[in-house]
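Hi C.,

You asked whether I'd gotten around to modeling the 278-residue construct. I have! Everything is below, sequence then structure, no commentary in between.
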Amino acid sequence: MRIGVHYTTSYRYSEPTRRVLQLLRVTPQSFNGQNVLDWRIDVDSDARLREARDGYGNITHMLYIDRPIDLLTITVSGRVLTEDRAGLVHGLPGELPAEVFLRPTELTEPGEALQWLAATIDEQGGASLDKLHRLSEALQKRMRFDVDATAIETTAEEAYAAGHGVCQDFAHMFIAAARRLEIPARYVSGHLFRRDGAHVQEAAHAWAEAHVRELGWVAFDAANGICADDAYVRVACGLDYRDAAPLAGARSGGGMEALSVEVHVRDGRIQAQAQAQN
């Protein structure tokens, strides 16, 4: 599938800033089943961008603005060619040992409820892949997707207890239980092409990848109860949301801050035709 992404993030400040520093993890990379055709970052201010890679192999950009501004808009756009590999993730550059992703974090530390869920799945037996599928199914059945239910600081245990959350929460819960099963798991941020026609979204998407000894990394989207297919554009990964968040940063001055995000994920063939006609 050819997927087109247009992702706009705007910050409006009540008073002019003195300095802005942002870390961007918004650029996907090519690997088996995902080929980045073109990709760009545009900033509406006089800014410096410095590209690098972090410890997880993600492409990062540091954004620096050293003059007063009261509005900052970052636009990310590009096209990616994907194929359905039944969730298998192979060929990423700079892979870390899978065991790194057994480490719990503040957001993915399982409490009693998630420990019980992991134990219940483990007692049913089967191979690691079977357990992971049951885990994804259990979360998808129990949890209700609710964009107003949680915040970025919500932990996996808190979301599970509440019974509702967003894709970030589903990924954290899956990771917490998988690690409890001694299966390495990591958080993934990216984009989802929705086949129901909902091409305008309020945020990027998130899911998890678990390491199965016989297969390697396998991508699970517990929020939708499926393994990632050709509708997914993988951008960044880490131990949890904080390691893979699309944007994070700091500023000097600026007073109050208002943030707005709009993500368009469309069929890239249609997008290319529209651009050609213009």
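If it helps when you're writing up: The two ends are 23 Å apart (CA to CA).

Thanks,
B.
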